[in-house]
């Protein structure tokens, strides 16, 4: 790593959600609120001291023409969810194209990282199962059931609002009747993702969800969530699973990584992202059942005080991310970085 790298010439591409809404925390007469922007790459919360000198460019609705002149410097796109930042990303993409400079996680690639688009990009890949996913909008549950039938999708299906993460508002429908039985006003007119569900219990009957951090050409296993049910999140971890997870973390480098590395690198090539995560199941042959792959995942949060088994992967991810940020020649969109400030 280059500890002395100065990020003052870097341009951070930031944005306001399409709906103009952010979460404000700690409001009060004597306190300034903290604004929480969901759907970002999240690492500024943990590397902010290193990137404090970088300049920010903010994009906001509405869509439309803009006039902007910027100084030279590599660009880092911090917007990660196309369903939350569609208009901001479209503006950022126009800027990135016009400038022709190095850009980490190009906005255009992020715009193509919705769940349905990722499923199509990975469909048919050797060593990968990417469940079919469609983005739909309906007047209610009965119409949605009809649309699913017309598309020939196979039950069970998972349904979630676009822009939702962490299992929020996620529903599993095992048959059409389950969906038709929901209240008439459920998600009326909302955009939702519908994904065909694939069982993934291991031979011992236990479910395991891996989170892979892809940082440039490095692949790091962040954690393994283990439980008795298919819905796996930090708060649904099974009891007495620590030894199993620790063993998998310890053996990953020598065991599964050499098997899956070519597949993961091909996923990165298809998605054209520099920094992103893959939530997946890995079977004994290293085949990936991809639950999601995008730039939204938080790798650096520490929910358990150290020391613990996650200290090493978190530090490895942090080091790899700083190294990649410091070397724009390694970015997928390396550009030329030679242009002066240019009007858009």
TrEMBL record:
Keywords: ATP-binding, Nucleotide-binding. InterPro entries: ATP-grasp (IPR011761). Residues 120-330 form the ATP-grasp domain. The keyword ATP-binding applies. It comes from the Bacteria. This is ATP-grasp domain-containing protein. It comes from Phenylobacterium ferrooxidans.
């Amino acid at each position: 790593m280059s500890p002395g790298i100065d990020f003052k010439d870097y341009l951070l591409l930031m944005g306001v959600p399409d709906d103009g809404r952010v979460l404000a925390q700690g409001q009060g007469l004597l306190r300034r609120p903290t604004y929480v922007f969901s759907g970002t790459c999240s690492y500024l919360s943990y590397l902010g001291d290193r990137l404090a000198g970088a300049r920010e460019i903010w994009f906001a609705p509405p869509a439309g023409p803009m006039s902007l002149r910027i100084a030279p410097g590599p660009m880092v796109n911090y917007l990660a969810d196309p369903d939350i930042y569609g208009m901001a990303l479209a503006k950022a993409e126009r800027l990135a194209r016009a400038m022709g400079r190095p850009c980490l996680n190009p906005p255009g690639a992020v715009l193509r990282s919705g769940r349905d688009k990722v499923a199509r990009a990975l469909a048919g890949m050797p060593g990968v199962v990417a469940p079919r996913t469609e983005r739909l909008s309906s007047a209610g549950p009965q119409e949605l059931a009809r649309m699913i039938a017309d598309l020939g999708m196979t039950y069970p299906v998972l349904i979630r609002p676009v822009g939702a993460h962490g299992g929020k508002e996620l529903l599993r429908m095992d048959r059409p009747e389950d969906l038709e039985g929901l209240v008439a006003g459920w998600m009326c007119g909302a955009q939702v993702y519908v994904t065909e569900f694939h069982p993934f219990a291991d031979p011992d009957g236990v479910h395991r969800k891996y989170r892979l951090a892809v940082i440039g050409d490095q692949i790091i296993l962040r954690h393994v969530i283990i439980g008795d049910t298919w819905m796996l999140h930090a708060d649904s971890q099974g009891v007495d699973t620590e030894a199993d997870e620790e063993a998998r973390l310890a053996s990953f480098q020598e065991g599964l990584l050499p098997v899956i590395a070519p597949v993961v690198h091909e996923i990165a090539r298809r998605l054209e992202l520099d920094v992103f995560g893959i939530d997946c199941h890995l079977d004994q042959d290293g085949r990936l059942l991809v639950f999601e792959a995008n730039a939204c995942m938080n790798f650096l949060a520490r929910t358990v005080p150290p020391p613990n088994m996650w200290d090493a992967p978190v530090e490895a991810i942090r080091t790899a991310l700083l190294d990649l940020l410091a070397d724009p020649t390694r970015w997928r969109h390396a550009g030329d970085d030679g242009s002066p400030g240019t009007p858009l």
